[in-house]
Amino acid sequence: MQKDQYRIQTTSYYSSIFTLSSTLKCSYQVLFGFAYSYEGADMPLACLTDFEAHARERLSKSSWDYIEGGADEGITRDDNVAAFKNTSMCKTGQESQEHQSPRIRLRPRYLRDVSEVDLRTTIQGEEISAPICIAPTGFHCLAWPDGEMSTARAAQAAGTCYITSSYASCSLEDIVTTAPRGLRWFQLYVHPERQLNKQLIQRVEALGFRALVITVDVPILGNRRQDIRNQLNLMMNLMQASIHSTKERNSIPHLQMSPISTSLCWNDLSWFQSMTRLPIILKGILTKEDAELAVKHNVHGIIVSNHGGRQLDGVAASIDALTEVVAAVKGKIEVYLDGGVRTGNDVLKALALGAKCVFLGRPILWGLAYKGEHGVKEVLNILKNELHISMALTGCRSVTEISRDLIQFSRL
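Below the sequence we write its predicted C-alpha coordinates.
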Protein backbone atom coordinates (compact mmCIF):
# COMPACT_ATOMS: atom_id res chain seq x y z
CA MET A 1 0.00 0.00 0.00
CA GLN A 2 2.79 2.44 0.91
CA LYS A 3 4.61 1.69 -2.36
CA ASP A 4 1.43 2.31 -4.37
CA GLN A 5 0.84 5.56 -2.52
CA TYR A 6 4.44 6.66 -3.17
CA ARG A 7 4.09 5.78 -6.85
CA ILE A 8 0.93 7.88 -7.12
CA GLN A 9 2.62 10.75 -5.30
CA THR A 10 5.65 10.55 -7.57
CA THR A 11 3.51 10.56 -10.70
CA SER A 12 1.48 13.45 -9.31
CA TYR A 13 4.58 15.50 -8.62
CA TYR A 14 5.96 15.09 -12.12
CA SER A 15 2.56 15.56 -13.71
CA SER A 16 1.93 18.82 -11.86
CA ILE A 17 5.34 20.45 -11.99
CA PHE A 18 7.11 19.12 -15.01
CA THR A 19 4.29 17.97 -17.29
CA LEU A 20 1.56 20.61 -17.16
CA SER A 21 -1.16 19.77 -19.66
CA SER A 22 -2.45 21.79 -22.59
CA THR A 23 -5.62 22.34 -20.57
CA LEU A 24 -3.56 24.09 -17.92
CA LYS A 25 -2.03 26.36 -20.56
CA CYS A 26 -5.49 27.67 -21.36
CA SER A 27 -6.08 28.29 -17.64
CA TYR A 28 -3.26 30.86 -17.54
CA GLN A 29 -5.35 33.18 -19.66
CA VAL A 30 -8.31 32.87 -17.28
CA LEU A 31 -6.20 33.30 -14.16
CA PHE A 32 -4.06 36.21 -15.27
CA GLY A 33 -6.08 37.89 -18.01
CA PHE A 34 -3.47 37.66 -20.76
CA ALA A 35 -4.04 38.80 -24.30
CA TYR A 36 -1.58 37.16 -26.67
CA SER A 37 -2.61 38.80 -29.92
CA TYR A 38 -0.37 41.49 -31.28
CA GLU A 39 -0.34 44.02 -34.06
CA GLY A 40 2.70 44.88 -36.11
CA ALA A 41 4.93 47.50 -34.57
CA ASP A 42 5.11 50.90 -36.22
CA MET A 43 8.86 50.55 -36.59
CA PRO A 44 11.38 47.71 -36.27
CA LEU A 45 12.54 46.89 -32.77
CA ALA A 46 16.20 47.93 -32.53
CA CYS A 47 17.36 46.72 -29.12
CA LEU A 48 16.35 44.47 -26.25
CA THR A 49 14.77 47.28 -24.23
CA ASP A 50 12.33 47.84 -27.12
CA PHE A 51 11.02 44.33 -26.45
CA GLU A 52 10.75 45.15 -22.76
CA ALA A 53 8.38 48.02 -23.51
CA HIS A 54 6.19 45.89 -25.77
CA ALA A 55 6.07 43.03 -23.26
CA ARG A 56 4.95 45.38 -20.51
CA GLU A 57 2.04 46.54 -22.67
CA ARG A 58 0.94 43.00 -23.46
CA LEU A 59 1.12 41.36 -20.04
CA SER A 60 -1.17 41.85 -17.06
CA LYS A 61 0.24 43.76 -14.10
CA SER A 62 0.57 40.67 -11.90
CA SER A 63 2.39 38.63 -14.53
CA TRP A 64 4.65 41.57 -15.46
CA ASP A 65 5.49 42.10 -11.79
CA TYR A 66 6.23 38.39 -11.41
CA ILE A 67 8.66 38.40 -14.35
CA GLU A 68 10.33 41.72 -13.56
CA GLY A 69 10.22 41.63 -9.78
CA GLY A 70 13.28 41.44 -7.57
CA ALA A 71 13.77 40.62 -3.93
CA ASP A 72 13.17 43.25 -1.24
CA GLU A 73 14.20 46.72 -2.56
CA GLY A 74 15.33 45.44 -5.95
CA ILE A 75 18.88 46.78 -5.49
CA THR A 76 20.62 43.73 -6.92
CA ARG A 77 18.12 43.37 -9.76
CA ASP A 78 18.82 46.93 -10.89
CA ASP A 79 22.55 46.68 -10.21
CA ASN A 80 22.86 43.71 -12.55
CA VAL A 81 22.13 46.01 -15.48
CA ALA A 82 23.73 49.17 -14.09
CA ALA A 83 27.07 47.47 -13.42
CA PHE A 84 27.54 46.89 -17.14
CA LYS A 85 26.79 50.57 -17.77
CA ASN A 86 29.51 51.75 -15.36
CA THR A 87 27.20 52.87 -12.54
CA SER A 88 25.66 51.12 -9.56
CA MET A 89 22.24 51.97 -8.23
CA CYS A 90 21.58 52.60 -4.55
CA LYS A 91 17.95 53.09 -3.57
CA THR A 92 16.81 55.34 -0.76
CA GLY A 93 13.07 55.37 -0.27
CA GLN A 94 11.50 55.89 -3.69
CA GLU A 95 14.62 57.41 -5.24
CA SER A 96 17.60 55.80 -6.96
CA GLN A 97 21.01 57.38 -6.60
CA GLU A 98 24.21 56.59 -8.47
CA HIS A 99 27.33 55.90 -6.47
CA GLN A 100 30.93 55.53 -7.48
CA SER A 101 31.77 52.20 -9.05
CA PRO A 102 34.58 50.91 -11.27
CA ARG A 103 33.86 51.67 -14.91
CA ILE A 104 34.27 48.77 -17.31
CA ARG A 105 35.80 50.35 -20.40
CA LEU A 106 36.73 48.65 -23.67
CA ARG A 107 40.22 48.95 -25.19
CA PRO A 108 39.79 48.53 -28.96
CA ARG A 109 42.57 47.41 -31.32
CA TYR A 110 42.50 48.67 -34.90
CA LEU A 111 44.13 47.95 -38.27
CA ARG A 112 43.04 44.34 -38.11
CA ASP A 113 41.22 42.48 -40.85
CA VAL A 114 37.67 42.08 -39.54
CA SER A 115 36.05 41.29 -42.87
CA GLU A 116 35.05 37.99 -41.29
CA VAL A 117 34.02 37.70 -37.64
CA ASP A 118 33.28 34.25 -36.20
CA LEU A 119 30.91 34.19 -33.21
CA ARG A 120 30.95 30.41 -32.75
CA THR A 121 32.18 28.83 -29.55
CA THR A 122 31.71 25.67 -27.49
CA ILE A 123 30.23 24.92 -24.08
CA GLN A 124 30.86 21.55 -22.47
CA GLY A 125 32.26 20.40 -25.80
CA GLU A 126 29.15 21.33 -27.82
CA GLU A 127 29.31 23.99 -30.53
CA ILE A 128 26.91 26.93 -30.39
CA SER A 129 26.48 29.67 -32.99
CA ALA A 130 27.31 32.46 -30.54
CA PRO A 131 28.15 32.76 -26.82
CA ILE A 132 24.56 33.80 -26.13
CA CYS A 133 22.26 31.18 -24.58
CA ILE A 134 18.90 30.97 -22.82
CA ALA A 135 18.77 30.84 -19.03
CA PRO A 136 16.22 28.75 -17.12
CA THR A 137 13.05 30.66 -16.32
CA GLY A 138 9.75 29.10 -15.33
CA PHE A 139 6.17 29.29 -16.60
CA HIS A 140 6.75 30.55 -20.16
CA CYS A 141 3.02 30.11 -20.81
CA LEU A 142 2.61 33.30 -18.81
CA ALA A 143 4.11 35.09 -21.81
CA TRP A 144 2.87 33.03 -24.77
CA PRO A 145 0.42 30.12 -25.17
CA ASP A 146 3.00 27.64 -26.50
CA GLY A 147 5.37 28.60 -23.71
CA GLU A 148 8.61 26.65 -23.60
CA MET A 149 7.89 24.93 -26.91
CA SER A 150 8.19 28.29 -28.67
CA THR A 151 11.37 29.05 -26.73
CA ALA A 152 12.88 25.67 -27.63
CA ARG A 153 12.13 26.11 -31.34
CA ALA A 154 13.73 29.55 -31.31
CA ALA A 155 16.84 28.21 -29.56
CA GLN A 156 17.13 25.36 -32.05
CA ALA A 157 16.80 27.76 -35.00
CA ALA A 158 19.46 30.02 -33.47
CA GLY A 159 21.83 27.12 -32.85
CA THR A 160 22.20 27.88 -29.17
CA CYS A 161 21.68 26.22 -25.79
CA TYR A 162 18.40 26.41 -23.88
CA ILE A 163 18.33 25.50 -20.20
CA THR A 164 14.85 24.17 -19.47
CA SER A 165 13.51 25.03 -16.02
CA SER A 166 12.18 22.58 -13.45
CA TYR A 167 9.09 24.79 -13.52
CA ALA A 168 8.48 24.59 -17.24
CA SER A 169 4.81 24.88 -18.10
CA CYS A 170 5.12 22.43 -21.01
CA SER A 171 6.07 18.80 -20.63
CA LEU A 172 9.70 17.88 -21.17
CA GLU A 173 8.56 15.42 -23.83
CA ASP A 174 6.71 18.15 -25.75
CA ILE A 175 9.74 20.43 -25.55
CA VAL A 176 12.01 17.73 -26.96
CA THR A 177 9.52 16.73 -29.67
CA THR A 178 9.03 20.29 -30.91
CA ALA A 179 12.79 20.95 -31.15
CA PRO A 180 14.45 17.54 -31.47
CA ARG A 181 17.82 18.86 -32.69
CA GLY A 182 18.18 21.57 -30.07
CA LEU A 183 20.95 21.65 -27.48
CA ARG A 184 19.20 21.39 -24.12
CA TRP A 185 20.41 21.45 -20.54
CA PHE A 186 18.06 20.83 -17.62
CA GLN A 187 17.86 23.02 -14.53
CA LEU A 188 17.04 21.18 -11.31
CA TYR A 189 15.56 22.50 -8.09
CA VAL A 190 16.57 19.70 -5.74
CA HIS A 191 13.58 18.02 -4.10
CA PRO A 192 13.85 16.72 -0.51
CA GLU A 193 13.04 13.19 -1.71
CA ARG A 194 16.14 11.74 -3.38
CA GLN A 195 14.12 9.17 -5.29
CA LEU A 196 12.16 11.93 -7.03
CA ASN A 197 15.40 13.63 -8.05
CA LYS A 198 16.81 10.36 -9.34
CA GLN A 199 13.76 9.54 -11.44
CA LEU A 200 13.64 13.03 -12.92
CA ILE A 201 17.34 13.05 -13.78
CA GLN A 202 17.03 9.65 -15.43
CA ARG A 203 14.07 10.99 -17.38
CA VAL A 204 15.89 14.06 -18.72
CA GLU A 205 18.96 11.99 -19.51
CA ALA A 206 16.82 9.58 -21.54
CA LEU A 207 15.24 12.55 -23.36
CA GLY A 208 18.63 13.75 -24.57
CA PHE A 209 19.36 16.67 -22.28
CA ARG A 210 23.12 17.22 -22.29
CA ALA A 211 23.86 18.71 -18.85
CA LEU A 212 22.34 19.02 -15.40
CA VAL A 213 22.21 22.54 -13.94
CA ILE A 214 21.66 22.50 -10.18
CA THR A 215 20.41 25.79 -8.75
CA VAL A 216 22.11 26.42 -5.41
CA ASP A 217 20.82 29.85 -4.36
CA VAL A 218 17.24 28.89 -3.43
CA PRO A 219 17.30 27.06 -0.09
CA ILE A 220 14.24 29.19 0.55
CA LEU A 221 12.39 31.66 -1.66
CA GLY A 222 13.50 35.30 -1.66
CA ASN A 223 11.20 38.02 -0.37
CA ARG A 224 9.42 39.31 -3.47
CA ARG A 225 7.33 42.26 -2.39
CA GLN A 226 5.40 42.81 -5.61
CA ASP A 227 4.10 39.24 -5.59
CA ILE A 228 2.96 39.78 -1.99
CA ARG A 229 1.24 43.05 -2.92
CA ASN A 230 -0.44 41.35 -5.88
CA GLN A 231 -1.42 38.45 -3.61
CA LEU A 232 0.21 36.21 -6.19
CA ASN A 233 0.76 32.65 -5.05
CA LEU A 234 1.74 31.36 -8.46
CA MET A 235 2.19 27.71 -7.56
CA MET A 236 -1.16 27.40 -5.82
CA ASN A 237 -2.94 29.33 -8.57
CA LEU A 238 -1.56 26.91 -11.14
CA MET A 239 -2.53 23.90 -9.08
CA GLN A 240 -6.04 25.23 -8.50
CA ALA A 241 -6.38 25.78 -12.24
CA SER A 242 -5.44 22.18 -12.94
CA ILE A 243 -7.32 20.46 -10.13
CA HIS A 244 -10.38 19.83 -12.29
CA SER A 245 -8.39 19.05 -15.45
CA THR A 246 -6.16 16.29 -14.08
CA LYS A 247 -6.78 13.08 -12.20
CA GLU A 248 -3.65 13.57 -10.09
CA ARG A 249 -5.28 15.51 -7.27
CA ASN A 250 -2.86 14.19 -4.67
CA SER A 251 -0.28 16.60 -6.13
CA ILE A 252 -1.78 19.53 -4.27
CA PRO A 253 -0.91 18.60 -0.66
CA HIS A 254 2.42 17.18 -1.84
CA LEU A 255 3.43 20.51 -3.37
CA GLN A 256 2.27 22.46 -0.36
CA MET A 257 4.87 20.66 1.73
CA SER A 258 8.37 21.34 0.41
CA PRO A 259 9.13 21.24 -3.32
CA ILE A 260 12.72 22.50 -2.88
CA SER A 261 15.26 21.08 -0.46
CA THR A 262 16.46 23.36 2.32
CA SER A 263 19.23 20.97 3.35
CA LEU A 264 21.22 20.60 0.11
CA CYS A 265 24.95 20.81 0.84
CA TRP A 266 28.30 20.21 -0.86
CA ASN A 267 28.54 16.57 0.22
CA ASP A 268 25.30 15.80 -1.63
CA LEU A 269 26.95 16.48 -4.98
CA SER A 270 28.72 13.12 -4.94
CA TRP A 271 25.31 11.40 -4.88
CA PHE A 272 24.22 13.26 -8.02
CA GLN A 273 27.51 12.43 -9.71
CA SER A 274 27.10 8.75 -8.85
CA MET A 275 23.78 8.39 -10.65
CA THR A 276 24.22 10.38 -13.87
CA ARG A 277 26.73 10.70 -16.68
CA LEU A 278 25.61 14.25 -17.39
CA PRO A 279 28.05 17.07 -16.63
CA ILE A 280 26.91 18.96 -13.52
CA ILE A 281 26.80 22.76 -13.57
CA LEU A 282 26.17 24.82 -10.42
CA LYS A 283 24.03 27.93 -10.91
CA GLY A 284 24.17 30.73 -8.35
CA ILE A 285 27.84 30.85 -7.34
CA LEU A 286 29.07 34.38 -6.50
CA THR A 287 32.19 34.02 -4.34
CA LYS A 288 35.78 32.80 -4.52
CA GLU A 289 35.19 30.39 -1.63
CA ASP A 290 32.25 28.62 -3.27
CA ALA A 291 34.00 28.58 -6.64
CA GLU A 292 36.97 26.80 -5.08
CA LEU A 293 34.64 24.28 -3.43
CA ALA A 294 32.94 23.68 -6.77
CA VAL A 295 36.29 22.76 -8.31
CA LYS A 296 37.13 20.58 -5.31
CA HIS A 297 33.85 18.68 -5.74
CA ASN A 298 34.53 18.04 -9.43
CA VAL A 299 31.63 19.88 -11.00
CA HIS A 300 31.94 20.72 -14.69
CA GLY A 301 30.92 24.36 -14.69
CA ILE A 302 29.61 27.39 -12.81
CA ILE A 303 26.97 29.91 -13.76
CA VAL A 304 27.76 33.16 -11.97
CA SER A 305 24.28 34.35 -11.07
CA ASN A 306 22.26 36.07 -8.36
CA HIS A 307 18.96 34.70 -9.69
CA GLY A 308 18.19 37.95 -11.48
CA GLY A 309 18.17 39.76 -8.13
CA ARG A 310 15.17 37.66 -7.04
CA GLN A 311 16.76 35.92 -4.05
CA LEU A 312 19.15 37.74 -1.67
CA ASP A 313 19.04 41.49 -2.23
CA GLY A 314 22.28 43.40 -1.78
CA VAL A 315 24.68 40.84 -3.25
CA ALA A 316 27.13 41.71 -6.01
CA ALA A 317 25.96 42.23 -9.56
CA SER A 318 26.80 39.18 -11.65
CA ILE A 319 29.40 40.99 -13.78
CA ASP A 320 31.09 42.28 -10.60
CA ALA A 321 31.27 38.76 -9.13
CA LEU A 322 32.55 37.22 -12.36
CA THR A 323 36.21 38.23 -12.01
CA GLU A 324 36.47 36.75 -8.52
CA VAL A 325 34.97 33.43 -9.60
CA VAL A 326 37.05 33.17 -12.78
CA ALA A 327 40.25 33.80 -10.83
CA ALA A 328 39.30 31.15 -8.26
CA VAL A 329 38.71 28.29 -10.72
CA LYS A 330 42.04 28.92 -12.52
CA GLY A 331 40.74 27.63 -15.83
CA LYS A 332 39.89 24.17 -14.45
CA ILE A 333 36.17 24.43 -15.25
CA GLU A 334 34.04 26.59 -17.51
CA VAL A 335 32.41 29.70 -16.08
CA TYR A 336 29.26 31.30 -17.50
CA LEU A 337 27.34 34.47 -16.58
CA ASP A 338 23.65 35.13 -16.08
CA GLY A 339 22.16 38.52 -15.17
CA GLY A 340 22.00 42.04 -16.55
CA VAL A 341 23.02 41.37 -20.16
CA ARG A 342 21.15 43.74 -22.46
CA THR A 343 23.58 44.59 -25.32
CA GLY A 344 26.31 43.09 -27.44
CA ASN A 345 28.79 45.25 -25.55
CA ASP A 346 27.63 43.55 -22.33
CA VAL A 347 28.30 40.14 -23.87
CA LEU A 348 31.76 41.26 -24.99
CA LYS A 349 32.62 42.55 -21.52
CA ALA A 350 31.52 39.30 -19.88
CA LEU A 351 33.59 37.21 -22.29
CA ALA A 352 36.63 39.45 -21.83
CA LEU A 353 36.36 38.99 -18.06
CA GLY A 354 36.39 35.22 -18.41
CA ALA A 355 32.85 34.00 -19.09
CA LYS A 356 32.59 31.22 -21.67
CA CYS A 357 29.12 32.45 -22.62
CA VAL A 358 26.20 34.42 -21.21
CA PHE A 359 22.65 33.29 -20.47
CA LEU A 360 19.61 35.52 -21.03
CA GLY A 361 16.63 35.46 -18.68
CA ARG A 362 14.09 38.29 -18.78
CA PRO A 363 14.85 39.43 -22.38
CA ILE A 364 13.80 36.00 -23.64
CA LEU A 365 10.44 36.39 -21.89
CA TRP A 366 10.10 39.88 -23.38
CA GLY A 367 10.60 38.45 -26.86
CA LEU A 368 8.20 35.62 -26.11
CA ALA A 369 5.50 38.03 -24.92
CA TYR A 370 6.02 40.21 -27.99
CA LYS A 371 5.76 37.59 -30.73
CA GLY A 372 6.29 34.06 -29.40
CA GLU A 373 8.94 31.99 -31.14
CA HIS A 374 9.65 34.76 -33.64
CA GLY A 375 10.08 37.31 -30.86
CA VAL A 376 12.68 35.10 -29.14
CA LYS A 377 14.50 34.69 -32.46
CA GLU A 378 14.55 38.47 -32.90
CA VAL A 379 15.98 38.99 -29.41
CA LEU A 380 18.76 36.49 -30.07
CA ASN A 381 19.49 37.88 -33.54
CA ILE A 382 19.70 41.47 -32.32
CA LEU A 383 22.12 40.52 -29.58
CA LYS A 384 24.22 38.44 -31.98
CA ASN A 385 24.37 41.32 -34.45
CA GLU A 386 25.39 43.72 -31.69
CA LEU A 387 28.11 41.34 -30.53
CA HIS A 388 29.36 41.03 -34.12
CA ILE A 389 29.67 44.82 -34.34
CA SER A 390 31.35 45.09 -30.93
CA MET A 391 33.88 42.39 -31.84
CA ALA A 392 34.68 44.00 -35.17
CA LEU A 393 35.10 47.44 -33.59
CA THR A 394 37.52 46.05 -30.98
CA GLY A 395 39.53 44.04 -33.51
CA CYS A 396 38.33 40.58 -32.45
CA ARG A 397 37.91 38.22 -35.39
CA SER A 398 36.79 35.28 -33.29
CA VAL A 399 35.61 34.55 -29.75
CA THR A 400 39.02 33.08 -28.95
CA GLU A 401 40.60 36.52 -29.53
CA ILE A 402 38.48 38.12 -26.81
CA SER A 403 40.69 38.53 -23.74
CA ARG A 404 41.15 40.49 -20.54
CA ASP A 405 43.34 42.94 -22.49
CA LEU A 406 40.13 44.41 -23.92
CA ILE A 407 39.05 45.67 -20.49
CA GLN A 408 40.16 48.71 -18.56
CA PHE A 409 38.79 49.50 -15.11
CA SER A 410 38.70 53.12 -14.00
CA ARG A 411 36.92 55.30 -11.46
CA LEU A 412 34.34 57.97 -12.20
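The chain has 16 helices and 14 strands.
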